[in-house]
Amino acid sequence: MGIDHHRLYAETTELSESLPGAEVYSFTPGWEAARVCGKWFMLTTVLKEERIVILKAAPEDAMALRQMYREITTGYHMNKRHWITVRAGGGMSAELLRELVTDSYRAVLGTIPRSRRPLGWERYLA
């Protein structure tokens, strides 16, 4: 069974807040973001009365995900190659959503110099 847009928001926010050094905050009315060391790895907003989550993804992964899941499209208001938009629906499981958020966090964390990474980062990058 898929997840609804309320659970989509709750799952992504809860997971983001649990990642080392991550913070979730509202940066403008109607928009929230999660970042690590000052860099975004997740954004969320409501679009046409539907909660959406925007996540970073490797271009080849983003393309494959868009082909596999109708709930995943190009990144809303972001680089269409490096970001994806996730919507609630029958094909979106909590497990897949957690994997997408964690992968987005890893992608951003990997761009941060080791000396600036938060405590506990080793668990997410080999």
TrEMBL record:
InterPro entries referenced in this protein's UniProt entry, alphabetically: YjbR, YjbR-like_sf, YjbR/MT2646/Rv2570-like
Pfam families in the record: YjbR (PF04237)
Superkingdom of origin: Bacteria
PANTHER family given in the database record: CYTOPLASMIC PROTEIN, CYTOPLASMIC PROTEIN-RELATED
Protein name, as recorded: Cytoplasmic protein
